[in-house]
């Protein structure tokens, strides 16, 4: 069997998620060479060099000028995604981008247009799609073993690491200022909703709760959608579920209700009994990159489960719409 072509890649943004997810995956996977990391922080570049043995540059444009780099991974704050993605596409690079795709709906669709114009492979890191349990859930939905898809329910209530510690505190505050739980985490579930159902959102309503009044965006949001297929989708996201407590509890559920059965709690329930789904690891950076690299080698994303740029835009638009609707409801209520 011929050996796969090695893809040379650069990573832009050496922050928290890159440190625990992207960089370890890229260093571990075969068939890829991580050439250079770009970040505006010398301290982060130093950490990447010492921990992963990767050289760094302060200006990502230097990376884009390297002709031997075929693709780039964007792991910077969301408000920078559009500019960096457009620069990378103009430079002729394939792109893998962290979620959400962009900070606004307009910026998200601008990235789509740029990717179409460039004809590049553009993957978005909705890695929940690639966990064992979610891929099995998709197979059971597509096989119609639970009948017609009726209701999709996604709940992730947690305190976003709380108010203290290296993952809480400043990081949590930054996520709240840039859109809150629905944009940071809820975008995953809008993507799963579309992927599972094969349908776009036709109508949506949403309500929010401002537990922490100092933030513009709600810390808890519940969104209810009617899909074009007729199915109903619920996404509930919280960063204020026990965020002040010592033990930081969490409550998460993904429930798929069909006309002939249910997928819930890691089980498929039908008239014949139930079947346990394979256990899934949540953050499959390795599988996301494996899919991306395969798409780069083939030059197409056709038939890949990896989310493409349009998937990224639609999920980001849904998350931003839910936040906007919740804020409009709050304004009408005068609270």
DSSP strand count:
15
CATH class identity of the largest domain: Alpha Beta
Q: What's the overall geometry?
A: globular
What string gives the helices and strands in order? EHEHEHEHEHEHEHHEEEEEEEHEH
Low-pLDDT ranges:
none
How would a textbook summarize the main sheet? 8 strands, mixed
Estimate what percentage of residues fall within beta strands. 15-25%
CATH architectural type of the largest domain: 2-Layer Sandwich
Cα radius of gyration in angstroms = 20 Å
Number of helices: 10
- What is the third-level CATH name, the topology of the largest domain? Dihydrodipicolinate Reductase, domain 2
Considering the protein shown, what is the CATH homologous superfamily of the largest domain?
A: Dihydrodipicolinate Reductase, domain 2
Which properties best describe this structure?
335 residues, alpha/beta, Rossmann fold, Dihydrodipicolinate Reductase, domain 2, seven-stranded mixed beta sheet, 10 helices, 38% helix
């Amino acid at each position: 069997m011929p050996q796969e072509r090695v893809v040379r890649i650069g990573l832009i943004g050496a922050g928290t998620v890159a440190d625990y997810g992207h960089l370890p995956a890229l260093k571990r996977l075969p068939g890829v060479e991580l050439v250079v990391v770009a970040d505006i922080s010398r301290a982060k570049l130093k950490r990447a060099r010492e921990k992963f043995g990767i050289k760094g540059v302060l200006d990502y444009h230097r990376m884009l000028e390297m002709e031997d780099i075929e693709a780039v991974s964007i792991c910077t704050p969301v408000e920078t995604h559009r500019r960096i993605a457009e620069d990378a596409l103009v430079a002729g690079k394939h792109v893998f981008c962290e979620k959400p795709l962009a900070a606004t709906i307009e910026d998200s669709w601008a990235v789509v247009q740029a990717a179409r114009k460039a004809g590049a492979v553009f993957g978005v890191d909705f890695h929940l799609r690639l966990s064992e349990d979610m891929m099995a859930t998709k197979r059971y939905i597509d096989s119609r073993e639970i009948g017609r898809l009726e209701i999709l329910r996604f709940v992730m209530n947690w305190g976003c690491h709380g108010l203290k510690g290296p993952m809480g505190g400043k990081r949590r505050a930054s996520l709240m200022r840039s859109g809150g739980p629905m944009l940071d985490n809820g975008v995953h579930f809008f993507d799963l909703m579309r992927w599972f159902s094969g349908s776009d959102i036709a109508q949506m309503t949403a309500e929010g709760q401002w537990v922490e009044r100092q933030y513009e965006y709600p810390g808890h949001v519940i969104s209810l959608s009617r899909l074009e297929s007729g199915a109903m989708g619920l996404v509930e996201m919280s960063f204020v579920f026990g965020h002040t407590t010592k033990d930081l509890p969490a409550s998460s559920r993904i429930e798929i209700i069909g006309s002939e059965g249910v997928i819930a709690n890691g089980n498929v329930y039908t008239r014949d009994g139930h079947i346990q789904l394979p256990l899934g690891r949540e953050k499959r950076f390795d599988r996301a990159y494996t899919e991306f690299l395969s798409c780069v080698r083939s030059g197409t994303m056709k038939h890949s489960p990896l989310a493409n740029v349009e998937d990224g835009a639609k999920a980001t638009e849904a998350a931003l719409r839910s936040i906007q609707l919740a804020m409009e409801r709050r304004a009408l209520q005068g609270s």
